[in-house]
Amino acid sequence: YKIEASYLSPNVEVAVNVEAATQIYNVNFLASEAVVKNCCQGMRDKCRLIDRVVVPGSKIPVQLFSIDLDVLNIEVGAPSKLPTFGARLRVFARQYLEVQRRNKPKHDVETLFDEDLDIQTMRREVSDDFLEIFRMGYQNYAEGEWQVAQKFLEETCVLRGSVDGPSVALIRFMESFGFEAPPGWRGVHDLSDFQAAGVGLSSAARGDGACSVGVGLSSAARGD
Predict the structure, then answer these.
(1) Which SS3 state, helix, strand or coil, does residue 115 take?
(2) Which residues are registered as beta bridge partners of 171?
(3) N or C: which end of the chain has fewer CB within 10 A?
């Protein structure tokens, strides 16, 4: 018999919805606050708070964090020719994996983020200026100062050199309310609210060279 995993734990449904939210915010990696709280302080500092939402499967609001890694920055080499995997090579592979399992070192993930060349390449566009401006934009968004938040987030839309998905998503959400926080706003909304949000930035954003949702950067931002 097949068992629906969400019957066993609501955490499964939360995880599924957080994964689906990567499409909404146009990011490669999302983590909930429950995951981030279990990280060391150094790793928590590398996770960017991008929203606080109510997701199906959770009765309390969930903070969502983006782990900013742009996989498109990595150059993928041509595939190497694999050797014929015969009985002798299979035995060698098992022995090698057993040795690796016994001698497996303990990885410091924070150090890995700081020193691994591939991770550095994937994070090369994530500057301190970008993070600070986004942080100010998010704080104003959470506190209901949406017109102020709009200005900061329109800047972070293209500050990385490519469209920043979380900035676009928050602008799109605020635009659906005319950049005026609804009465009783506490910095929390349903994840499903994005379905009712608009699909583009305001005309002011498009006119000053910011990003245009759905089509990438405006011609001014691209440098055309």
Answers:
(1) helix
(2) none
(3) N
